[in-house]
Write a structure and sequence with these properties.
CATH topology: VC0467-like
Structural class: alpha+beta
Helix content: 25-40%
Order of helices and strands: HEEEEHEEEEHEHEHHHHH
CATH class: Alpha Beta
């Protein structure tokens, strides 16, 4: 028979477990949203919110939800006649393969060839899907175009989550297609910090994080640099790169997701 003190201890642990349902969820999975820790120093990813669209033994792939540019879809995808009149801005999905074009679509009808991310959100990675969606009636509240993506090799994202670089939230269409992406990180970091209860004090291992975060790409450290990169993309993006069918090239995670 347990003593009163032992009973109280187990009761307290049970109550704590019930109060922390989010901790039981896998922090890295397709459809999860990663929120950069406020101390994450890598300028490519500081204050970013990333949706995981692919996760397997080869690594992880995600799209930044809050790197909106001032460049309209119609200008970046000018060779596509379906892009004409689309004045919604493109987003920077990440520093890898910045001339690659991807999309996120919110719909109740699954498009053929699209990858399901959540109950009503789909990942588009081929020219045909992008064209068909542009030709449809989807608005910016249900369809967004991304240039480039964020990538991690095997074990890299797990290491970064382990040192506290990312907070993880359950993804939802409301977060993915947030109407004010420029303030999304600020709102979500407060949400995650309010939910997380540390079992013991833990400091972000900045040296380990820096070692795991070496990239080939330039840095985004301010809104002005973000727009400069977007403008540079508009010049660099050759029509053949944008118009090529990417279904095959992105069926598996590229080996250069992270050096």
């Amino acid at each position: 028979m347990m003593c009163a003190t032992e009973s109280l201890k187990w009761a307290a642990l049970a109550m704590l477990a019930l109060s922390l349902p989010a901790m039981a969820a896998d922090p890295i999975a397709e459809g999860r949203i990663l929120v950069a820790d406020r101390y994450l120093e890598d300028p490519n990813f500081a204050e970013t919110v990333i949706l995981i669209v692919r996760y397997n033994k080869d690594g992880a792939m995600g799209l930044m939800l809050n790197r909106r540019t001032d460049v309209p879809i119609s200008r970046v995808l000018k060779p596509l006649k379906e892009a004409a009149g689309h004045d919604d801005p493109v987003f920077l999905g990440g520093p890898v393969e910045e001339t690659g074009v991807f999309g996120l679509l919110r719909t109740t009808d699954r498009p053929d060839g699209a990858k399901k991310i959540s109950s009503d959100v789909y990942f588009l990675s081929s020219k045909d899907l992008i064209q068909k969606t542009l030709a449809g009636s989807a608005t910016s509240n249900a369809f967004r175009v991304y240039l480039g993506y964020s990538g991690w090799g095997p074990g890299q994202l797990e290491s970064e989550v382990g040192v506290g670089a990312w907070k993880s939230l359950t993804g939802s269409a409301e977060k993915i297609f947030d109407r004010d992406p420029d303030t999304l990180w600020t709102r979500l970091i407060h949400e995650t910090e309010g939910q997380v209860v540390e079992w013991k004090p833990r400091l972000l291992n900045r040296e380990l994080l820096r070692n795991s975060r070496k990239t080939e790409c330039g840095a985004i450290s301010s809104s002005s640099l973000l727009e400069a990169r977007a403008a540079r993309l508009e010049v660099r993006a050759a029509p053949f790169a944008l118009l090529s069918d990417m279904r095959g090239s992105h069926a598996e995670l590229p080996s250069r997701a992270r050096p």
